[in-house]
C-alpha cells in the first residue's frame, strides 16, 4: 500500500533577482525549444535545495531550487511584517557575504505546503511581481516574455550560498543595533529609483549607526568616570540631536571631514523631504548610501578604514536599474529575439488602414521644449 504524503504548511518569500540554488549534481540546461513548448523540468523548481539554521530551532529556513525562501507557517510567521523582516534579515546577511538581493515585500509572501520529501507548492500566486513569476514558472503557466528567464539563469551553489550567509552574518552582527530589513528596503528603493522612500530608510540606518558609534565611543567613555549625571545627560536625544552627534564625532576625529559634509547634505535633504515634501535627487541618495557604507566600514575597522565594504557597495551599484533613456542605446549581448507585432508607423505595418482621431493628432512645435 502506497504511503500517504504528509504536507507541512509553509510561508514562501520571493525576491529579485531570480537565480537557482543548486546542489553539487544538479543540472539545468533547458533548450530554447523546451522553453518555448514549456517542456522544461518544472518539478525541479518545486524541490528544496538546502536548509539554514536561522535561530528558530527545531525549525529551519528552507531554500528552494528556484531561490524561494521558506519558513514554517507557525503563528509567528503568519504576520506579513514579521515574515518579511525574517526573510530580509537572511537576504541582508547574504548581501554582506557577497550575494545581492532586493528586499521581500508582503506582496511577495504567499502560503504554501511542503512535503516530507522536500517538494513545495505555492497555494496562491500572490499579488507581487516576484511571487507571481515563481508561481508561473513552477506551474508552466509562464508567459512568453518571462519564460526566457529560465534559459541562462544565474546559478549559485549551496556551498557558496551557505558560506555567504555565514560570513555575512558574522560581519553584520559586528555593526550592533542595526535593522537589516530597513537597510535592505532602503537599498531596494534606491536601485529601483524610488528615491524618497530610499532616503527615509537609508537615513534611518544612518541614525542607527551614528547612535551605535555614540554609545561605543562617547557613552562608554563615561562608564569609569565619577561625574554624576553626565552619562544620563549624553543619553538625552532631545539635547543630543543627530546633527549634534555628527558634529561631536567629527570634532573627536571619529569621522572625516568628507563624511561629515556628506552626512549633513543627506540630513538636510531628509528634513526637506519630511517637512516640505521636496523629493531628493539621485546624487543625494547615492551619497547617502555611500556614506552609510563608509561609516559601517569605520565601525568594522575600529575607525581606521572607510572602504572596507567597498566591494559590497559596488555590487549594489552594479544592480542599479538603468535610466529611462540610458546613454548607451546599443543593445549588447542579445542572443535571442522575439517577434513583436507592428503598429501604425512601424516599417512592418505596410499600407493597411487604421483608426485616426483628428483631435488626438499631434502637430509640430515652433520651438523645441527643453
- Please bin the fraction of helical residues: 40-55%
Q: Main sheet: which strands, in order across?
A: 3-4-5-1-6-7
Q: Which structural category fits the helices and strands?
A: alpha+beta
Low-confidence stretches: none
Could you describe the largest sheet, including whether it forms a barrel?
Answer: 6 strands, antiparallel
| Mean pLDDT across residues | 92
Strand proportion, as a percent range, falls in: 5-15%
- How many domains make up the 3D coordinates? 2
Pattern of helices and strands: EEHEEEHEEHHEHHHHHHHH
| Strand elements, count | 8
Rg (CA only) = 25 Å
General form? globular
Please give a structural write-up:
By secondary structure, this protein is α+β, with helices and mostly antiparallel strands. It folds into two domains: 7-173, no CATH class; 180-318. The chain has twelve helices and eight strands. It has helices at residues 32-36, 80-96, 129-139, 144-147, 158-173, 180-191, 195-219, 230-234, 242-251, 257-276, 282-300, 310-318, and strands at residues 7-13, 19-22, 48-52, 61-64, 69-72, 109-115, 120-122, 154-157. The strands form two sheets. Strands 3-4-5-1-6-7 form a six-stranded antiparallel beta sheet. It has a two-stranded parallel sheet with strand order 2-8. A hairpin with a 4-residue loop joins strand 4 (61-64) and strand 5 (69-72). The longest helix is centred in the middle third of the chain and has 25 residues, at 195-219. It is globular and about 85 Å long. The termini are far apart. The mean pLDDT is 92.
